[in-house]
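Bench log, entry 3. Co-assembly request; chain sequences pasted below exactly as received.
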Amino acid sequence: MNFTGRHILSIDQLSRGDIDTIFSVADSMEPYAHRKKVTKVLDGAILGNMFFEPSTRTRVSFGSAFNLLGGEVRETTGVENSAIAKGESLYDTARVLSGYSDVIVMRHPQSGSVAEFAEASRVPVLNGGDGDNEHPSQALLDLYTIRKELDTKGRSLDDFRIALIGDLKYGRTVHSLCKLLGLYQRVKVVLVSPNELAMPDSYIDALRHSGHEVVETDELEPAIAGVDIAYSTRLQEERFASAEEAKLYRGRYRLNQAIYTKYCEPNTVIMHPLPRDSRSGANELDNDLNENPNLAIFRQTDNGVLVRMALFALVLDVVGQVDRESRPVNWYTGSRFQ
Ligand code: ASP
Ligand code: CP
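Structure output for the full assembly:
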């Protein structure tokens, strides 16, 4: 598709060719994200970063990505700090904010809300997560990470096995990821969840329609025994009717080093969209995995900046100008990116 001026709301909008485009632009962002070069290509542009739900990674990495391209960021966090708390509609909010910004990233607790906002917006809107529906930029960075991890093992996106573990009903990252997997071939998808938190049928049907093998189970250990990627998720407690109900499932699936060593094939990659819930009652990915070289969670977060830079560069149509506006970095940058 032609990305210029487009909203990015759902993986449904993207073809496999579009994903290739996003990934190759993301690759080209590495010198900037890894602090080798600075670009001013978006000098003067403003990002409206509108987060009406808690966020660390998505908010800060979209903001950093925009800054790394030379643009400025204006933020609203929490409904209570915006005029939505005074009864202002999404329509009016969108009309107003799109006069202040060149592009908007929005997260909101209601499914479909970002699309509703985008309809009224005068500038492109990127979905930073809408309720239990989708989180497309997360799925893109996840797939980008999976591609890189498989590549080091001589494998490709067209023939691999992945387990999606946890709250697959409310988890928007796995919803978007399933849609993305549907664009590839010969993927075995093992869905691990309690029955009540199973992946909605529409996503499973679409995966099967793409010719993928889909297995559903509520047992962790056998499921992680035969996969290349174990993708764990957090119980989406904020989407449950009551804390009591959420409690029934808290801590159901916990991956730690002992279980990994016992059940996983060597070099199984461990992923998670984060935040992992590190409280003792939940702890879906134990801290004792932190030294495991196959734990890819912080490679995912680093890759998020590349993918989000690519989305801005494509939507604002500056891909060809990024290098023209660049110079080497002139401060100490250390060696955090290897
Ligand atoms: N951060 C991701 C999201 O906002 C996953 C999570 O919160 O569990 O969807
Ligand atoms: N993965 C993710 O969306 O993280 P945040 O909720 O911290 O943005």
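The chain has two domains: 11-133+303-328, 136-298. The chain is about 35% helix and 15% strand.
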